Amino acid sequence: MNLDQATIVKLAQRLEACELEATDTTKITDDYPDMDWDDAYAIQDEIRRMKIARGSRIVGLKAGLTSHAKMKQMGVETPCFGFLADYFAVPEGGECKVSQLIHPKVEPEIAFVTKHALRGPGCHIGAVLAATDFVMPGIEVIDSRYRDFKFDLKSVIADNTSAVRFVVGGMPVAPLQMDLRTVGIVLEKNGEPVAFGAGAAVLGHPAAAIAMLANHLAARGEEIPAGSLILSGGITEAIAVQAGDSVCLRVQGMGSVGMRFI
Ligand code: 0L1
Ligand code: MG
């Protein structure tokens, strides 16, 4: 690690204040070009710690930048991982207040819910499928705290991978009942299809993103607990939304889920 604890806390406070006040900032690597991957996750961990100290519950985990469309859109080459706090959750068909956000975009995702803990190293798709209770459609709302969504991977990891809101729902399905690689998705905005894809867009198989998360956590001495909700990453590039928009994600064999932006 290259940053001291006081700097990590200061950067975590700066990024979390941007989230809570819906204001943007320049990327933190502009000020700290020597920060490393451990520093980036330490800043994210500090944001998580501050939320828990304030009474928030962590209700899930997420993998981000897991599709080539997303990596190309953001100019990065590696996935990243973050957490979901309780107040990020929007009820199915519910409202998301744009005044609380900076420049939201939505991503169509497959959400996993585990029934057994998953522990790396060496976690693989088979282990993920065996430990998964069900999968279901999920829409993640991302809202980078960085001006114009301009960042590098270390800055975005520190910023909890742009996580801000999500909705899950539709029809939960046991993962062995379908081939998650060929499952098709359509994302609609205001009734019009705006993005299409198939599960394989996420690292060849959405369960690979969950395995990667388990292996990432193992390197930190952690695991994915049983009962976790995990967003496996956007299948297509992210779509910008504004007040007045409604979005609906249809996933083959899993029904649909949606939310409105007000
Ligand atoms: O969930 C995601 O794929 C987003 C990761 C962070 C990058 C971004 O803000 O697009
Ligand atoms: Mg995402």
What is the CATH homology-level superfamily?
Fumarylacetoacetase-like, C-terminal domain
Tally of structural domains: 1
Number of strands: 12
The CATH topology comes to Fumarylacetoacetate hydrolase, domain 2
* H/I helix tally: 6
Low-confidence stretches: none
Which whole number gives the mean pLDDT? 96
CATH architectural designation: Alpha-Beta Complex
* Span between termini: 42 Å
Structural description of this entry:
By secondary structure, the protein is an alpha+beta fold. It has one domain: Alpha-Beta Complex (Fumarylacetoacetate hydrolase, domain 2). The chain is 26% helix and 28% strand. It is built from six helices and twelve strands. It has helices at residues 5-21, 37-53, 68-74, 125-131, 153-158, 206-218; strands at residues 58-64, 80-85, 95-96, 105-114, 132-142, 163-168, 184-189, 192-198, 229-231, 239-240, 246-251, 255-261. Strands 1, 2, 4, 5, 6, 9 and 10 form a seven-stranded mixed β-sheet that branches. Strands 3-12-11-7-8 form a five-stranded mixed β-sheet, with no helix packed on it. A hairpin with a 2-residue loop joins strand 7 (184-189) and strand 8 (192-198). Helix 1 crosses helix 2 and helix 4 crosses helix 6 (206-218). The longest helix is centred in the N-terminal third of the chain and has 17 residues, at 5-21. The chain is globular, with a radius of gyration of 17 Å. The mean pLDDT is 96. It binds hexanedioic acid (0L1) and magnesium ion. Magnesium ion is lined by residues 62, 64, 107, 109, 140, 142, 231, 233-234. Residues 62, 64, 107, 109, 140, 142, 231, 233-234 line the site of magnesium ion.
